[in-house]
Amino acid sequence: MEKVIMGNHAVSYGVQLARAQVIAAYPITPQTQVVEILSEFCANGTLKATFIKVESEHSAMAAVVGASIAGARAFTATSSHGLALMHEVLHWASGGRLPIVMANVNRALGPGWNVWTEQTDSLAQRDTGWMQFYCETNQEALDMVLQGFKIAETVLLPVMLVLDAFVLSHTEEPVDVPDQETVDRFLPPYEARYKLQPGDPRSFYGLVAPEHWMELRYKMQKAMEEAVAVTQQVGAEFGQVFGRAYDVVEKYRMDDADLALVTSGSIVGTSREVVDELRDKGQKVGLLKIRMFRPFPVAAVREALAGVKKAAVVDRNISYGVGGIFAAELKSALYGTPHQPTVFPFIIGLGGRDVTPQSIRDIVAYAQEHDAPAEEIIWMEVKR
Amino acid sequence: MSNYQVLSEARGQVLSEARGQVPDQELMSPGHVACPGCGAPMAVRYALKALGENTVLIVVASCWSIIAGPFPYTAVQVPLLHTLFATGGSVASGVKAGLEARGLKDTTVLTLAGDGGTFDIGIQALSAAVERNEDFIYMCYDNEAYMNTGIQRSSATPWGAWTTTTPVKHPKEQPKKDMVAIMAAHRIPYTATATVAYPEDLIRKVQKAKGIRGSKFIHVLSPCPSGWKSEPAQSVLLSRLAVQTRIFPLYEVEHGEKYTINVWPKERVPVTEYMKLQGRFAHLGPEALAQIQENVDREWEKLVAKAGVTHLNREDAKNAKGT
């Protein structure tokens, strides 16, 4: 059934269809509607789940960790400061190999207060062992919840799906909400391999000495490596069932492109329009959408950029002292490959500053006019 | 009264009262790694005897994170989840919901935390969980300081006590936080105090808590020979003296209103009998000890008043046992 809904509600419908059993969340702008409507679903019985109305995000993550380790399918949603407050517990979710799914609405971190979109909140959690997926549309947000549980329950690592504040979270778009029967076939009930079970007195999360520690961490990395192929399989299966296939990256009009825009989240949608426009003018410009950020899809990125002369990376985030985080990851992925493109690292749109088609045209123009970036970081539309 | 007399009286009392009241089932193994004389493993042993196998134990970061044994070992014969310092209330809420989602509706969730995890860093999540009246038992084993990190003061450390962060020249200047009053103020169904010197009382309270749906809080005084600078062999004696001096009375509070004193000390043992056995109080002079005695007497009378005991029914109250 097609509905016109905001991104936050698209996530909620995904959670309902995934039959999450335990939800724990704390409201924060701009995530609030995700949990408001889930509370309604739980109250009116359309979702048979326990909603734990915790007093903080730290407790929200701890509660879903508890629920997951007890063997239930668990979900939470947050944003920005809420995600930062969860930080230590994020490690316990991934270290416990728990297939929790969380939606994070990208929002800048203070001070001063800023409720608008920026990816620094989620990217700052990149080393916590969570998989990360950046959504371009509301449809993708819903679809990602369903795929997220399937991927997480296969590789046994948690999934963070990420959507832009307001640009997606509060913007209504037509979304195909699949029927429950089809979703049930795609996503069967969760059966935990190891769980808290009376009569089976296992100990979870006990003290681990150095003699065992590295092996546990090695296995987490192996699971991350496995996650790329699993995501591709799940995305292909999703396409067969629902008619919308997904991959870890998406190449848009990349055939014969000299210049590739590389970006993520809702900026991808804006960039598609600009690429179409420039292609109409005969310019060889393509677009590489990075959907999966953790694990970083190194092979897919290398393959996509193999014949490209220039890569213009559009980052709505910053690691202070380095620059755009996608740009840094991309450079790292390309290191040592033959015929590397020249990477142009752009930073734009921090704290919700609008990124318009003209912004993207300007980025393309800069990359076309320069043989190499004139600065380590190319700040767009900033008052210096 | 000499220590010896107290001790022998205590032994007699335990033997007569505990007989038949302490279940035989052992769900705690002897291979735990607690220090000699630690009160915490005794408290958990009794609690698990009271609860039986259909229990999930959650251990908040504390001495018990070590006591339970390192990976891949466990010292308890029930499923055990170690968890972060500030998550005693929240992770238990999730575990209970997760078990119920799988149809395990009658499994008891027992959270175990020290005074640091309860009085300090964990109080936010605990307060929230009991305000939601989550169905679990929260047991605080209170050794009155951060013992696992090497004896630093907590808000459970008593006035005047030495710790490594309240040195003798500057001992703790604040009274111990009244955690039972805080829990009672949440109007949860059941709050109680216990010590390992009265195992029959501790077991009865845990069993009572198990039979009540909603949030239950049990506060166990847990002697720590290394932190209290006491003899390991005297931990049960200290637990008993804490009750007999009325420093740590045994009582329960139902729905934040109904106070019942469970053990009414037959005579008033001076606080010095308890304090002189502990090096952490050795620096205190007669004035300080007199002040502590005065405070203890005042708190006891406040408790007596809360329990609705007046000069008219005091004799009945003294002989009453908890139900």
Short note summarizing the structure:
Chain A has 384 residues and is α/β, with parallel strands linked by helices. Chain A has helices at residues 7-17, 32-43, 57-69, 80-85, 87-95, 120-123, 138-155, 180-186, 210-242, 267-280, 298-304, 325-334, 357-369, and strands at residues 2-6, 22-24, 50-52, 74-78, 101-106, 131-134, 159-164, 172-176, 203-204, 249-252, 259-263, 285-290, 292-294, 310-315, 342-347, 378-379.
Description:
- The complex is a heterodimer of chains A (384) and B (323).
- Chain A has 13 helices and 16 strands.
- By secondary structure, chain A is an alpha/beta fold.
- Chain A folds into two domains: 241 residues, 3-Layer(aba) Sandwich (Rossmann fold), CATH 3.40.50.970; 131 residues, Rossmann fold (3-Layer(aba) Sandwich).
- Chain A has a seven-stranded mixed sheet with strand order 3-2-4-5-7-6-13, with helices on both faces. Chain A has a six-stranded mixed sheet with strand order 10-12-11-14-15-16, with helices on both faces.
- In chain A, strand 14, helix 12 and strand 15 form a beta-alpha-beta unit.
- In chain A, helix 10 packs across helix 13.
- The longest helix of chain A has 33 residues.
- The radius of gyration of chain A is 21 Å and the shape is globular.
- Chain B is an alpha/beta fold and 323 residues long.
- Chain B has a single domain, classed as Thiamin diphosphate (ThDP)-binding fold, Pyr/PP domains (Rossmann fold, 3-Layer(aba) Sandwich), CATH 3.40.50.970.
- Chain B is built from 13 helices and eight strands.
- Chain B has an eight-stranded mixed sheet, with helices on both faces.
- In chain B, helix 3 links the parallel strand 1 and strand 2.
- In chain B, helix 2 packs across helix 8 and helix 4 packs across helix 6.
- The two termini of chain B are 30 Å apart.
- At the A-B interface, helix 3, helix 5 and strand 9 of A face strand 1, strand 2, helix 4 and helix 6 of B.
